[in-house]
Amino acid sequence: MLPIEHFAKKAKTLGASQAKVIEPKTVAVGHWVRLKCQYGCGAYGTCLTCPPYSPTPACTANMLSEYRKALLIQVKDVDLKRGSGAILKLRRMVADLERGLFLAGYYKVFGMASGPCEFCRQCDLTKACKHPYEARPSLEACGIDVYQTARNNGLKLEVVQSTDSLCSFVSLILVE
Q1: Is residue 171 classed as helix, strand or coil in its secondary structure?
Q2: CA-CA distances (angstroms) from residue 2 to 9, 16, 66, 100, 106?
Q3: Please, what is the average pLDDT of the chain?
Q4: Which of 118, 116, 95 is nearest to 7 (CA)?
Q5: Residue pair 22/7 in contact by the 8 Å Cβ criterion
Q6: Is 73 helix (H, G, I), strand (E, B) or coil?
Q7: Which of 47, 73, 150, 152 has its C-alpha lying 20 to 30 A from 168's C-alpha?
């Protein structure tokens, strides 16, 4: 079985600024995070990967206790004004890494992406997801405090204060 560190290196070749193996006990979960989705995000309730369809913070906290290792991925210095497709690229990266880890023998692997899903122009909430192999909930949708989790693991992450600022995206893949 390939070591998890192999996939951290692969994440960097796929465009991640940083990728590191962490312990899931360093992942911070808070019920308030999901409220920020409900009261502050225009995608709330419009996508199968967002609340109220995504795992609850309680479910996430329980799930984290079932893992010993995870891969924390950060993509930095993204200019959203240029329409770089950074979120979609990161979502594909998470799906590709999750699949690679699964095929390498890490059968429990589960990825969480960043931001609302962009695989479909509009999510059809009355049917099953059209992209089940790629679509994953975001960390925030699952109640993960991304800022505290990043800090707990030595990653710098700041609040973006204007549309002219570059931003960062963080994703997490639970591995074993």
Answers
A1: strand
A2: 12, 19, 21, 10, 9
A3: 93
A4: 95
A5: no
A6: strand
A7: 47
